[in-house]
Specification:
The protein is an alpha/beta fold and about 240 residues long. It has a single domain (about 65-240), classed as Rossmann fold (3-Layer(aba) Sandwich), CATH 3.40.50. About 45% of the residues lie in helices and about 15% in strands. The protein contains 8 helices and 6 strands. It has helices spanning about 1-10, 25-35, 55-60, 85-115, 135-155, 175-180, 195-205, 230-235, and strands spanning about 15-20, 40-45, 70, 120-125, 160-170, 210. The protein has a 4-stranded parallel beta sheet, with helices on one face. It has a two-stranded parallel sheet with strand order 1-2. The longest helix is centred in the middle third of the chain and has 29 residues, at about 85-115. It is globular. Bound molecules: NADP nicotinamide-adenine-dinucleotide phosphate. NADP nicotinamide-adenine-dinucleotide phosphate (NAP) binds near residues 47, 48, 49 and 176. NADP nicotinamide-adenine-dinucleotide phosphate binds near residues 49, 123 and 168.
């Protein structure tokens, strides 16, 4: 998803900063973007689960006017029952999906509001709508991002800064393929295309606070809205293959 965002942003003539942990993947992606769009690309190899990650990112981007920030890294392709995972793994997920997102919004949002223009996309998930078995900490972090995006939109939209909580359904990424245990040669079926997701999100930056990709009502509320909380949780707890979106 992050690579798709980077390509769509660069295709608009904007320079990009790419963040991930694997240097070879970052560099290959950066080279492809430079060659295709002729924009400047900076790579920052960082583990966003590290407590000082956003401080490192702020230092690595000093001198750059960051006009659009997409916080995308956030999937959990090791989802399992709450007690089947070490507590440190839960803590690490919360650090990347909550603390780092909050700190990034704070440090990169402040100059945007001072300038009176900019945009921030927080990528969240249908797992934010209700709890469910094997979703526990992941779903809770995605709910955190959704509420944070809505709240920042409420505070910043009059100052010219767009905030979009981008809610994804099942999207054809390596992470999801690992979760579903399908190989790269298998037809993705009903999965969304990351390029379509990124393009749609960038077209709708001003339509926040929330954009639900693939929904008939993309600016609407939870698709589970009319269910009781118990029925919603039971639905979310069904095996992935029996769920949609
Ligand atoms: N795919 C879906 O079906 C789906 C559904 C709902 C919501 N979402 C949301 O969409 C977003 C993107 O998901 P995705 O499927 O593309 O998988 P992802 O695992 O979030 O994204 C993978 C990318 O993020 C980087 N990354 C992961 N952990 C990182 C860390 N600790 N520090 C720095 N970079 C890190 C990875 O590079 P490195 O491994 O090199 O670090 C890779 O480039 C997530 O927020 C996810 O919650 C996805």
């Amino acid at each position: 998803m992050g690579a798709a965002f980077a390509h769509k942003i660069a295709s608009r003539g904007l320079n990009v900063v790419l963040v991930a942990r694997r240097v070879p993947v970052l560099e290959a992606s950066a080279a492809g973007i430079r060659d295709t769009y002729g924009v400047e690309v900076r790579t920052v190899a960082l583990d966003l689960s590290a407590p000082d990650a956003i401080w490192e990112l702020v230092k690595a981007t000093s001198g750059i006017e960051v006009g659009l920030f997409v916080f995308n890294a956030g999937a959990d392709d090791t989802s399992c029952a709450f007690l089947d995972k070490p507590v440190d793994a839960h803590r690490s997920l919360m650090q990347r999906n909550c603390t780092a997102v909050m700190e990034a919004a704070y440090h990169f949002g402040a100059p945007m509001t001072a300038r009176g223009h900019g945009a921030m996309v927080l990528v969240t998930s249908g797992a934010a709508w209700a709890g469910g078995a094997a979703l526990s900490v992941y779903g809770a972090t995605k709910a955190f991002e959704l509420i944070l995006a809505e709240s920042l939109w409420a505070e910043w939209h009059d100052s010219g800064v767009h905030v979009l909580g981008l809610v994804l359904g099942r999207t054809d990424t390596p992470s999801l393929r690992r979760t579903l245990e399908i190989g790269s040669d298998t037809s993705p079926g009903e999965l969304a295309d990351p390029n379509d997701v990124a393009e749609t999100a960038l077209e709708h930056l001003a339509d926040g606070p929330v954009w639900i990709h693939g929904s008939a009502s993309p600016t609407g509320g939870s698709p589970l809205g009319s269910l009781s909380r118990r029925d919603a949780v039971l639905l979310m707890s069904r095996p992935r293959s029996a769920r949609t979106g």
